[in-house]
Write a structure and sequence with these properties.
Rossmann fold; Uridine Diphospho-n-acetylenolpyruvylglucosamine Reductase, domain 3; alpha/beta; 5-stranded parallel β-sheet
């Protein structure tokens, strides 16, 4: 075990921890490390430890002045002077966070955080994809975040206090604030104190100064235990997200019958995931009442057939709930009558399996059991070029019901679908765009006797 010793002869335990953490994340000595530095004790200790294990020419310090205090520029000057003395590259910028918060309708804390990480990322990108951002968040920060979110109300996903990624590393998350301060004193480091950190008007500060000390008196390892629980919650959150994505797949819809077989908890997680995807990764505005409202919509066999919540729109059709827009077939110039005539005259030998007031449905059969359904609207395409989208959508959904009925009646696993005169977007049904310049695929090597065909027609009519 390698031990690092500072000039005063004390063991630099955090330096060894930092080196091990970077090694576990495969951070190479050639990688540029961008260190977010406020000038406080946490970030200054991280910088001092980092100089022991990483080439200083591969370190860039990034400081954002939030302009929240009249003397905030002194923090930037302190960081700049330290970097100049240590021979480390430094990038400082100033931003009016109060103005940003007002424009974005965020709190000061939220606006400051988003501004910092946008700034850090802009610096990181200058050095290529291998560059990484380091921040000095520690176990106490994680514990404060977990307690604050629990008090406010959250799910297991909200208990993931402070996340990491391949480009954002927080090597001190397992280290307490007191251990960091002890290391800073043993090194004889100087740092800046932000007076707003002592202001208990802020909820996070009240937790830090009033709640955390009580918990640490109850149990000395309280903050580290809460931080470890947050890491466990992160693993649970990732597993749940993986399972919900596995259920949803990439079809753009799910079956109510399959959804109903899942646990109540997992059904709510599926809805949460759909809402999150529709709101660019955020669940803000999603309440338990909203989730139960969507569950009632899914299980209601009648109307309504559409439900909107924020940017999320769900549509029901038979046993399916679509969570992406239903594809609308696009009309393409085509002589629909010629295809219909060729079928009737036997040039394209198909089995007529369904007919109603709007469409004919014909079936051909591939020798390896890929069945094609050709849906032919009874109205000529060139007679309704200005057909409303509602009709096109209805035609598409009707065609899907016919294809599903044929799958049910025949036991075939894959059914292809064509709508004559329409360019149909790709769907799970292996849709093939109608094309007037090519024959409909029909490798005829299978024949069905009339009695079997008639029985199949009845099954299809019952299903549709």
């Amino acid at each position: 075990m390698s031990i690092f010793t500072n000039q005063k002869g004390t063991q630099a335990r955090l330096t060894y921890h930092l080196e091990s953490r970077l090694a576990s994340l495969h951070a190479d000595k050639n990688d540029m490390l961008v260190v977010g530095c406020s000038g406080g004790v946490d970030s200054m200790t991280l910088l001092a430890c980092l100089l022991d294990v990483h080439p200083r020419e591969r370190i860039t310090v990034a400081h954002l002045d939030h302009a929240l205090r009249s003397d905030s520029h002194d923090d930037a000057e302190f960081v700049r002077r330290w970097c100049e003395r240590e021979g480390v590259r430094c990038v400082c910028e100033r931003m009016d966070i109060t103005e940003r918060a007002e424009k974005s309708k965020q709190s000061i804390e939220e606006a400051g955080r988003s501004a910092r990480y946008e700034f850090f990322e802009s610096v990181r990108k200058k050095y290529g994809e291998s560059a990484k951002i380091l921040t000095a968040h520690h176990a106490d920060d994680a514990a404060e975040t977990v307690l604050y979110r629990l008090a406010r109300g959250t799910t297991i996903h909200g208990l993931v206090a402070i996340e990491e990624s391949t480009t954002l590393i927080r090597p001190f998350l397992d280290i307490s604030r007191s251990a960091i301060e002890s290391e800073a004193r043993s090194r004889g480091l100087d740092w800046r104190e932000d007076p707003t950190n002592a202001d208990t008007a802020y909820a996070r500060n009240r937790i830090r100064h009033e709640v955390i000390p009580v918990l640490n008196r109850v149990h000395p390892e309280a903050t580290r235990s809460i931080a470890r629980f947050s890491r466990y919650a992160e693993e649970c959150s990732r597993y749940i997200s993986w399972q919900t994505q596995k259920f949803l797949g990439d079809t753009g819809f799910f079956f109510v019958s399959e959804f109903s077989r899942e646990s109540d908890f997992f059904q709510r997680e599926i809805i949460r995931t759909l809402y999150e995807h529709a709101h660019t990764g955020s669940t803000a505005g999603l309440s338990e009442a909203n989730i139960w409202e969507i569950l009632r919509f899914i299980y209601n066999p009648g109307n309504p057939t559409e439900k909107t919540l924020g940017n999320l729109t769900l549509r029901k059709s038979a046993d399916r709930v679509y969570h992406r827009p239903v594809p609308i077939p696009k009309i393409v110039p085509m002589n629909q009558k010629s295809i219909f005539t060729r079928i009737i005259e036997g040039e394209l030998p198909c089995y007529r399996v369904y007919e109603d007031e709007h469409v004919f449905a014909f079936l051909d059969i591939h020798p390896v059991a890929l069945w094609h359904v050709l849906v032919v609207p009874k109205v000529q395409v060139d007679e309704f070029q200005d057909v409303p989208e509602s009709y096109a959508s209805a035609l598409f959904l009707a065609s899907q019901r016919i294809a599903k009925a044929i799958k049910h009646a025949t036991g075939c696993r894959r059914v292809g679908m064509l709508i004559a005169g329409f360019d149909v977007p790709h769907t799970h049904l292996h849709v093939f765009p109608a094309n007037s310049n090519k024959d409909i695929p029909h490798p005829w090597s299978i024949e069905i006797d009339e009695a079997t065909m008639e029985a199949m027609r009845k099954k299809i009519e019952e299903s549709v």
